[in-house]
Amino acid sequence: MFRNDLLAGKRILITGGGTGIGRSIGRRYLSLGAELVICGRREPVLAEAAESLQHETGGKVAFKACDIREAAQVEDLLGWVWQNGPLHGLVNNAAGNFIAQSETLSPRAVDAVLGIVLHGSAYMTLGCGKRWLAEGRHASVLSIITTYAWTGSAYVVPSAMAKAGVLALTRSLAVEWGGRGIRLNAIAPGPFPTEGAWERLVPKPELAAAFEAKNPLHRAGHHDELANLASFLMADETGYINGEVVTIDGGEWLQGAGQFNFIGGMMSPADWQKLRPKK
């Protein structure tokens, strides 16, 4: 759907780029001419991903292990990246999440999610931003959040807290930095199956089936659909989009927000006929 050189000349860092959604976005960026840098905590996973992505696309992929919960490691990573040239884009994709009854959460469990999602995104964004501003460089930040960033959600409270913070970061810096050449936007995905996340969030087959189908389209999202949206928002041609969150969930959150939406699956044609005004 895009010209093949849409992202040519761009060097983009994706956190958590070795697996799942991050890997899918990276593959699409490479196919559109970008140069890729990926980071994550497990170096063997990154090495395998880099080799595979390069083989699939013919693009250039660099990788380095980094625990983005640690500000010092983020600074070391960005220093290493900039030795080979500046970045033009950042995708805050790395995440941690699990379902739990909130009264059972320990401080360590809360910190584990906030550390990756909120602190890691902040460290990366601020670390890149200060370099871009010092160089007078135009750049783009794209963060992967979720629709419950603005509604909240039971059983994933640390994630809801963290994603809401990343949304606030995005909108705040879009205003503060937009006039200085740095755009910040976000994507709020619905269910896009990934092996690791599904094991933690929907561990039973019946839960997964319900989770993936509880939207007006009655299906889960395809990774290429999300990757195309991420490419659209990263491209220079969408340079007037700033501070925006684009939802890609098949209409799931809208369906849940409408107070009477639930009745559609519970009413038969005969039930509706009974409600029609008498002539």
Task: Give structural notes.
- This protein is an alpha/beta fold.
- It has a single domain, classed as Rossmann fold (3-Layer(aba) Sandwich), CATH 3.40.50.
- The chain has 11 helices and 7 strands.
- A 7-stranded parallel β-sheet has the order 3-2-1-4-5-6-7, with helices on both faces.
- The longest helix has 29 residues.
- The protein is globular.
Outline type: globular
- According to DSSP, the number of beta strands is 7
What Rg do the Cα atoms give?
Answer: 20 Å
> Could you list the spans in which at least 5 consecutive residues all have pLDDT below 50?
none
If you average the pLDDT, what whole number results? 92
Question: Could you list some keywords that capture this structure?
Answer:
single chain, 279 residues, alpha/beta, Rossmann fold, 11 helices, 14% strand
Quick overview:
The protein is built from eleven helices and seven strands. It has 279 residues and is α/β, with parallel strands linked by helices. The protein has a single domain (11-275), classed as Rossmann fold.
Task: Write the SSE topology.
Elements: E1 11-15, H1 20-31, E2 35-40, H2 43-57, E3 61-65, H3 71-83, E4 89-92, H4 107-135, E5 139-144, H5 148-151, H6 157-178, E6 182-189, H7 195-201, H8 205-213, H9 223-234, E7 245-248, H10 252-257, H11 269-275
Parallel strand pairs: 1-2, 1-4, 2-3, 4-5, 5-6, 6-7
Helix pairs in contact: 1-2, 1-9, 3-4, 4-6
